[in-house]
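Title: Comparing notes on inverse folding

I've been comparing how different people in this forum approach sequence design from structure. To keep things fair, I'm posting one structure and asking everyone to reply with a full sequence. Here's the target:
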């Protein structure tokens, strides 16, 4: 087999000797193009002329976004570093390059790494890569972030995290995703679990505001930016995720909806995988939209707003689908669950019906709602949270957690039950005094 590769090692001292060695013959790879820079590489990759690329760590503007575009174009990557340059080696690994070699490796070794990288790319796609982030050729042309020019790589590499990722999602109509995400994170932390709460709502997040953080808190956008540059490690993640309560760290979101481009899918995937090392449970407040196609069709070079939501849902171990417990809310939830199943068929969400009250559903609302969800969406297992306005309003107004502000409130007790269920702990039994207010 002769594998056609692109070489983007321009400027490296060893460029000429490497290419000469590879061209020398029987290595099994053919360099079809020596790319002068990253734009050249991405254009060649989009053209489909090669199956792999050799990159040097010094390639200017190399970041996660660029690597994800190569992956979308099905070009496998092997990273090369100048012997002795450990900073370069670390940076390639932090960017997510799995196959990294010394630049003076024997041609046979480089060819073997290329073959492995190509083979890895042919394996059935993992959960994250199964997501379609848009048209590959168009994505390759979107190379507009001048901030990628600078980086420093003085960070240690993170160990393997085993923390769990819970995505809180729900259809349009403010069913209570933020309320559930914040409440659940508060309960987990209060029960002794080191927890990270992250706001990934691409339509503008309010978690920071709800918990009393300043608008300028660095948060998730800062973590994503560092991840994109290959500079995010556990220490850096901890620095941008301040503590809101004992055992509860918070990555605040983007304060304005027009900043959504700061939450790129490839970068978020890196943030979530590191978050698994920072906290035992990471709870993510997600956006509501799933359409992959919301841009006007002539504007195909634009990245997708909902890529962040899709990447988060795909990475999650558990997805909570929050719906409002009224006829309109249930209808939206049923439709939303259908869309979710179309986009991510492997995801089996835990349905949470929020704001349960007699006044809109009638007597025995839980039985009625459960019946409707089973009929229209085949959902059997539903967690109910009662309508309980007063303590929630007070919590938002005072920027405090329900666990401390209103420990006996029905909605708080129900959230504690949800946290217990998700951890496989027995749910404390109590009379459902939840519905009295309805
Ligand atoms: N169980 C509940 N009982 C009463 N009000 C609720 C409940 N859950 C959420 N709310 C209120 O509904 C509004 C929308 O909730 P929010 O969590 O911000 O929704 P989303 O994040 O889905 O847009 C907020 O004012 C919130 O306080
Ligand atoms: Mg919200």
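Reply #1:
Here's my take.
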């Amino acid at each position: 087999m002769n594998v056609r590769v692109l070489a983007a090692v321009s400027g490296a001292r060893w460029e000429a000797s490497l290419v000469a060695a590879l061209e020398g013959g029987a290595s099994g790879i053919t360099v079809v193009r020596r790319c002068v820079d990253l734009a050249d590489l991405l254009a060649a990759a989009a053209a489909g002329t090669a199956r792999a690329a050799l990159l040097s760590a010094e390639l200017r503007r190399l970041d996660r976004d660029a690597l994800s575009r190569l992956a979308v174009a099905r070009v496998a990557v092997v990273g090369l570093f100048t012997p002795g340059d450990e900073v370069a080696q670390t940076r390639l690994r932090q960017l997510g390059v799995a196959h990294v070699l010394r630049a003076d490796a024997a041609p046979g070794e480089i060819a073997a790494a290329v073959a492995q990288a190509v083979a890895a790319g042919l394996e059935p796609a993992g959960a994250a890569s199964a997501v379609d982030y848009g048209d590959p050729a168009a994505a390759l042309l979107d190379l507009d972030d001048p901030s990628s020019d600078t980086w420093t790589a003085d960070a240690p590499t993170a160990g393997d995290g085993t923390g769990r990722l819970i995505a809180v999602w729900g259809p349009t109509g403010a069913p209570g995703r933020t309320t559930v995400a914040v409440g659940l994170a508060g309960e987990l932390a209060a029960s002794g679990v080191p927890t990270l709460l992250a706001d990934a709502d691409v339509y503008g997040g309010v978690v920071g505001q709800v918990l009393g953080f300043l608008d300028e808190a660095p948060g998730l956008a800062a973590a994503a930016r560092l991840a994109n540059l290959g500079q995010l490690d556990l220490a850096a993640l901890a620095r941008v995720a301040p503590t809101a309560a004992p055992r509860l760290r918070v990555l605040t979101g983007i304060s304005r909806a027009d900043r959504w481009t700061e939450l790129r899918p490839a970068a978020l995937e890196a943030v979530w995988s590191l978050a698994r090392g920072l906290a035992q449970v990471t709870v993510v407040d997600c956006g509501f939209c799933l359409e992959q196609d919301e841009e006007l069709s002539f504007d195909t070079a634009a990245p997708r707003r909902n890529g962040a939501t899709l990447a988060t849902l795909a990475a999650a171990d558990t997805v909570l689908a929050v719906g409002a417990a009224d006829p309109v809310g249930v209808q939206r939830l049923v439709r939303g669950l259908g869309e979710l199943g179309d986009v991510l068929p492997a995801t089996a969400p835990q349905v949470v019906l929020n704001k349960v009250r007699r006044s809109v559903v009638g007597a025995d609302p839980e039985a009625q709602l459960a019946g409707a969800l089973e009929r229209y969406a085949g959902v059997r297992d539903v967690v109910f949270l009662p309508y309980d306005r007063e303590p929630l309003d007070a919590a938002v107004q005072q920027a405090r957690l329900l666990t401390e502000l209103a420990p006996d409130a029905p909605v708080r007790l129900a959230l504690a039950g949800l946290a217990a269920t998700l951890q496989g702990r027995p749910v404390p039994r109590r009379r459902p005094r939840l519905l009295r207010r309805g």
